[in-house]
Design goal:
By secondary structure, the chain is α+β, with helices and mostly antiparallel strands. It has helices spanning 5-8, 67-83, 169-182, 193-212, and strands at residues 20-26, 88-90, 100-103, 114-124, 128-135, 138-148, 150-156, 161-168. Helices cover 26% and strands 28% of the residues.
């Protein structure tokens, strides 16, 4: 998920890590290392743009056989997200069809990455909220998106432990945005066909101009 300074970063929630309730259950990837401190120095990956088919593919769940690939991928995803800059990135955006995403709202301007392995939204609030969203796969494009104001998400961390996260505000929007990516959904899919097509046409035009210039 992309962030526009004025509209996205002015309402940062408290440290997201404080909202995580740890569970004693074992996860899918036992023994996997936590994100390393040198994530910013890892190799940056190219971010895919529409109409790349990976952005529309449904991802598969991460399993035990994916441990090495995920261990290698997560620092690179974080580095890519920070370099963009953005506050969320899903594996399909870098061409990997695994159910994996990273999020960091940088509370207090300090990195606090959340790595979501096999995330799923289990509850949403009845009330909805409109927030301007952007996307690293649709650079420079923004629109107001209406989503549930609060969500409950279950996922596994890199230690293979089951986690639960209650989120509202910007974090709730970011989580929904990234989990959408894992199902082949872009934020423009929540808009009217007219607005969606306008944004996609504008993106194509801007990318052509960038390539020509």
């Amino acid at each position: 998920m992309a962030s526009r300074q004025a509209s996205m970063l002015s309402a940062r929630p408290p440290d997201a890590r404080a909202a995580i309730e740890r569970s004693a259950r074992d996860g899918y990837i036992a023994g996997m290392d936590a994100p390393t401190a040198d994530a910013h120095a890892a190799a940056v990956l190219p971010i895919l743009l529409p109409p790349h088919p990976a952005l529309r593919a449904r991802t598969r769940k991460v399993g035990p056989d994916d441990a090495a690939a995920v261990r290698d991928l997560v620092p690179r995803m974080l580095a890519t997200m920070y370099a963009a800059p953005g506050i969320g990135l899903a594996a399909p955006q870098v061409g990997v069809t695994l159910r994996l995403a990273v999020v960091d709202l940088m509370p207090e301007d300090v990195p606090a990455p959340i790595v979501l392995v096999n995330p799923e939204i289990t509850r949403v609030s009845e009330d909805w909220a409109v927030r301007e969203e952007g996307c690293l796969s649709l650079p420079g494009q923004y629109a107001d998106v209406n989503r549930p104001a609060r969500v409950h998400v279950r996922y596994h961390d890199l230690d293979g432990k089951a986690q639960e996260l209650e989120a509202e505000g910007l974090l709730a929007a970011c989580l929904q945005h990234e989990i959408d990516h894992l199902d082949g959904v872009l934020f423009v899919d929540h808009l009217s066909a007219l607005k969606r097509n306008m944004i996609l046409r504008r993106l194509v035009k801007e990318q052509k101009q960038k390539a020509a210039g």
